[in-house]
Structures are given as C-alpha cells and as structure tokens.
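Hey, quick one: can you model this chain's 3D structure?
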Amino acid sequence: MKILISGGGTGGHVFPAIAIAQAIRRLVPDSEILFVGARGRMEMEQVPKAGFAIEGLWISGFQRRLTWQNLLFPVKLVGSLARAWRILQRFRPDVVVGVGGYASGPVLEVATRLGVPTLIQEQNSYPGATNRLLAGRVGRICVAWPGMERWFPAEKVVRTGNPVRREIATATDAQAARRHFGLAPATTTVLVTGGSLGARSLNEAMMAASAKIGARKDVQWLWQTGRLYEATCAASATAARSNVRALPFLDRMDQAWAAADIVICRAGALTLSELCVAGKAGILVPSPNVVADHQTRNAETLVDRQAALLVPDAEADRAIDEALALAADDARRRSLANNARALAIPDADTRIAREVLRLAGFEGTGA
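Sure thing. Here's the predicted structure for all 367 residues.
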C-alpha cells in the first residue's frame, strides 16, 4: 500500500497530516508513506522528525497585495507541477491525500489528471482556496464541522473531525493537572492561550485586568503568554499575585486542557477541535490576521450551536469579564461544555485513515 500525503505550511496542516499518516501505519503497518511539502516550510523539518520521508516543491502562495514575488509565482507553479508529476510517476501511489497548503495544489492537480484516487482533508469551517478549487475533482472530502455541504459536493463529504493529540481525550484528572502547573487543585480555573507564540490582544487584556483578576480569589488563571511577551506579562502576573500562573510555553497542553474549566483562546481549527474533545466552556477571540477571516467563521460554527462564546479581537478585554461571569454561573458553563463535547470526534485520525484506505480499495484491518 503506497500513500502520498501533500500539503503543509502551518501547524494546522502539518500536524493533522502526520496524525493521519500515523493512523494509517497503525492500520497497515507495512504501508509506504511519502510526504510532499513546500521547501522552506515547517513540514520539511517536522515530517522527518515524525519518521516519514518527504520531498519538497519550490512553491509559495500568490500574494494578495502587489509585490515582485508574484512575478515568480507562475514559474514556481509550472516547476512544481512538473516535479509533482515526476514524483507521482516514480512513487506510483495507490491514493493521494491533500491537507491544504501550498504543496497540496500541484500534487492533487497532477494526481487527478493521472487518475490516481484522491482525498482532501479540510480542517476549517471555511475551506481554503486550494480545497475549494479541487473539490469537484477529488474522490472524497473529509471535513471537521457540520454543514460543509454548502462548500463541497454533498456526495463526497464525510464528517471525520480533525485529528487531535490522543492524550487530550484521556487527560481527565483536573486536580492532578492543576497541581502539575502549581495551581490550587479545587479552584475554578481559566486557561488563557494564544498559542505557543502568544497573542498580543489576549495578553494586553490580561494585563489591563490584573487588578480585577487579583481581586477574585475564587478564580485562578493559567496563562500561556508566548515567549515574545514573557517579560512584560510576568510583571502583570506578579501584580495579580497568587491566583495567576503565567508561563511563556505550556509543555503539556493535555494537562492544560484538563486543568481548565473555562478557556479563552483563538479560533484556529485545531484549537477548536481540542476544545471540543476536552469538553470545555470556550470564549473564542478569533485572530484578525488570517486569510478570509476564517477564524471568525470557525468560531461561529460553535457559537451557532451554543457551544462557545465569541468576542471580537478588538474587544478582547471583554473576554476577561465573560470568563469571570462564567465562573459564577455553573449551569451556563456546563451547558457550553456539554454542547462543545457533542461536536467532538476523538478518533478523527483513524476515521480519516480508514477513508484513505477505502479509497485505495484496501479492505483489511476493518478499514
């Protein structure tokens, strides 16, 4: 069984792709898996670390603003199509998987023209341009959220969820998780995270509210500041004193999710999938610095199902007040958490892997 997985560019594409490959290997241990990514992007480092081979294309996105780099785009595209054709002719995969990102387009374009079975995995509730363009020609489309038939042919859509780290579903001891971070084991806990790099608006909201936060000793805060903001945020955490634990990086996100009763976070596709698997009350502050404002669209998918609250980035200060209000309203907090949990698909990696194997005509291992 030969499977080619293409795409990447960001963690939101790369880590689901690796999770799918690992799930395929669990189902078919002797399968041969090759990745194709974009040179200079994170997949070229992360995929080999995970134990898989990868080849790179010289490809990048078309800039939406006027720039000289756009002059190179046609050259890169033609070169990438030619290299993708050579890779597919040499590797001869039974199925090609696209996860979005720059490399996904040329590889799937060639694969569909060669008649190779193809599948795309869309992480967001608003599809990327590459997946929208390819949807009519691929064999199957694995999606994370309900209602994706408005973007894709309904007969091709399978709701599989987004692959998330398996330990997030199994880390359920809140008191032990709080002790891991030096927090009080029985106190209502708010997790604030803008990702490993941090989010300026969330950090500024926390700093502006330090007096208010410090006055509410019935609530404690686990705050991932990001390394860029470590020094400035540490002073604010000190001012709030004992009920704020500020860290530049959370080395155990499974424990961070387990520790939290309430989460203030961005609305990236994987973050929201983790929120649902963990079953937490979320206050979503979508990043304004993303293509087509897709984080707001992701957030609205949960908000429309009463599974989270939405606060615009420009009003990030309000997220602190919403968290304090939720801390005092057990019924509302439980309702949000339960509705989020109802959207969770903890075994998404295996579901996607089985769709890949079915598409390739493989009937073994219960696929």
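One thing worth noting: The chain has 16 helices and 13 strands.
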